[in-house]
Structures are given as C-alpha cells and as structure tokens.
Amino acid sequence: MTDNADRSPVATDARPRLSTRFTEALGIEYPVVQGGMMWVGRAELAAAVSEAGGLGIITALTQPTPADLVKEVERARTLTDKPIGVNLTILPSIAPPPYDEYRQAIIDAGVTIVETAGSSPEPHMQQFTDAGIKVIHKCTSVRHALKAQSLGVAAVSIDGFECAGHPGEDDVPGLVLIPAAADALSIPFIASGGFADGRGLAAALALGADGINMGSRFMCTVESPIAQAVKERIVAASELDTNLIFRTLRNTARVAKNSVSDEVVRILNDGGQFPDVQPLVAGARGRKVFEQGDIEAGIWTVGQVQGLIHDIPSAGEVVRRTVAEAKQRLQERLAQFA
After folding, report:
1. Quick one: which of 333, 240, 317 has its CA closest to 3?
2. Domain definitions of the chain by residue range
3. In three state form, how does the secondary structure of 224-235 look?
4. How far from chain centre, in Å, is Cα 150?
5. Which keywords label this protein (predicted)?
6. pLDDT tens column, 215-268
C-alpha cells in the first residue's frame, strides 16, 4: 500500500497553538518528538519533523564515524533552521563504539538537544551541561526517570511496554506508567510507546505528560529513509504482528513478527542461549531489511502501534495533523462536561 492520502478526520491547514512545559524548555513549537532510531534517524526525516514544529532527532550511531555525524547535522541544517536533536544510545557491547568521540562530535556540531537512552546518562552529563546542551533521557521505569532527574536532565522520555525496541523488564504499559511518572517527577516528561496520532497526544496530556515521542509512526513517512516495502508492511500489519525476543535473557526487545524473530523466540523458549541466536539477530541483517526492503532478512524494530498506522504521509503532515486532532479531541471531550 502506497496511498499517501490524509485519512485523519481533521483539517490540517491551520496551525493550532500547543505549548507545554516541554516545548518551553526545549524551544520548540509542538510537543511531538521523532525518537532516535537506528538506521532511521537521518537528516531528511529529522529536519522535516523539526520544520513542522516538532523535534526531529538524528541517531548518532547510525553514522559510521563521529566526523560523519557532524556532517549529518550540518546537512540537516541546510534543510531547516529549527532545533534538531541527536540521539546517543549507550548499550553494553563486546566492542563498544567510541562514545566519548561521538559525544564530542555532538558538542562540536553545536547541537543543543540530546536524547540519551540505553543506560545512565551520568558519564556524559558534565560535558553536555558545560556545553549548554539540554538532555532528554529515555527510560522505561519511574525509578530510572527519578535517577535521571537527579542527574540534572532537562526532561525525561518515559517508554511504556507497548514500545518498539527495549521496553525494559517491568512490563508496565503506558496507561499506568505515564500517570505514575506524572506523580513522581518535577521536570517535564514526554510519553513514548504506542503513539501514532492526535488521540494518543490528547491521552498523554490528560494523563499528565508534556508531550509524546513517536518512532514507528515516523518510520512510516515519506522522508523516512527505510525501504518502501518496509513502510508498506507496517501499514498492512496489526497490533498483533510483533514479537518479544530475549525475554528469557532478561533483555527484552519488541521487534516485527517474521520468520527470523519467530525462530529466535522458539530457540530461546526451548532453552537456547544468546550464542544460539546471535547469527539471526546480527545488526547487519536488520540493516539489510531497512535498506533493501527484504522484511524476512533479519530482525527489525517496530511497535504495537503499527496497528494504528494506515498511510505513508509526509513527516510534517504527521506533526500537523497529530496536533490538530489532539486539540479537536480535547475540545470535544471537554464540551461534553460543559
């Protein structure tokens, strides 16, 4: 399916105002963030989101070297003069990337907003703070959010169990996690996992969040650099078409349901260990999915929210109609209590 038509019930030509603590802290127009995604967060997509008033994010480790990251940020700046963030995901690895060099590249590029994820941002906070960079830390629990708050981050992105990628091991969905975070945190926070449209933004705001982060929804846009076949697969899929892999290893990841992820689940459920599935989950195979469009080539990440994604619009259209629909939904619901 390649239909790019707007299926939203709301008009998108107006630019409603929607200011929250998050937009004020980050200097953006709308509380809609395009999350940092491996192989997806490149200049064209990030710039399109930011130009529409949201916050686009370039993924640092998608770039092969720190110098390439600086060039990618510069390329994004030729497409928009609005704020753009960079994601730096820190994960345990046998051969870890040069995180310190990527951090310095972010600083050298003049980036003012960073999304950290994967593990504690503490090793990076001093240099980012000294450089005037505001940090949004992505986490999957209230306790981790409180730790990030104590480290001085500007905002938190709280990721519910519905999300793509790593949902943590607590299995707490957004309907509980978002208000729990609202009760505990004093800094702005945005809700992640399960958001695709204005209904989700309205719900997140009602639950106490200051905005939303969307990953899978922005994967499925015109500017997203992944293959058209993958976008069409997301449109065709339902909320049931994901697998949770690595559950038995206590390193859960939500990925697209295909023959490869089915096999990974089977092997691990039968008592296998990581070496038994390592060839199946190699990152190079996942990259092949995104670049060549072979959805059975490897493991690739998408969230349950794909069941709410029905078209392939521009990224700017996603931002505009999400905000417009959220405003309409909130007004309609409040009118019922008038």
Report:
1. 317
2. 21-225+313-335, 238-301
3. CCCCHHHHHHHH
4. 23
5. Flavoprotein, FMN, Monooxygenase, Oxidoreductase
6. 999 999 999 999 999 999 999 999 999 999 999 999 999 999 999 999 999 999
